[in-house]
Amino acid sequence: MSDALAKAEAAVTEASVNTAAVQVALAAVELAKTAQAQAAPQQHTCQHHQRQGRSTGEWLGIGCAVCVGGVGIAIGFIAIAIGGISVAILALVLRSLWRDIQKTR
Q1: What is the pLDDT of residues 25-59, one digit of tens each?
Q2: Which domain holds residue 87?
Q3: 46 in a domain, yes or no?
Q4: Same domain, 68 and 104
Q5: Collapsing DSSP states into helix, strand and coil, what is residue 82?
Q6: Distance of alpha carbon 102 from alpha carbon 105, whole angstroms
Q7: Phi first, then psi: what are they for 48, rounded to 5°?
Q8: What contacts 62, CB < 8 A, 6 or more positions away?
Q9: Domain count, the chain
Q10: How far is CA 20 from each of CA 14, 27, 30, 53, 71, rounded to the nearest angstrom?
């Protein structure tokens, strides 16, 4: 019986040693996971976000807005030119009338 008791005692000791070894191994794995998780944010990561390029619809909208704006500006300048010509003609007509009135007096 003492032989069986010695074998059982040896098995218990070996199991406790194996359990301790497994616990140490698991602790090492957890430590490695923790170290890796802490090291990941320290790596160089790009902090700014690059904006995606404009879509075709956006470019068409921008192109149409530029065309409409350009036509509007051109029409505005034409209106200013017509107004300037009208003022010049009016000035010439009034000057001619003034001279005629001055000659008759």
Answers
A1: 777 777 777 777 776 555 566 677 777 788 999 99
A2: 58-105
A3: no
A4: yes
A5: helix
A6: 6
A7: -95, 155
A8: 54
A9: 2
A10: 10, 10, 15, 58, 85
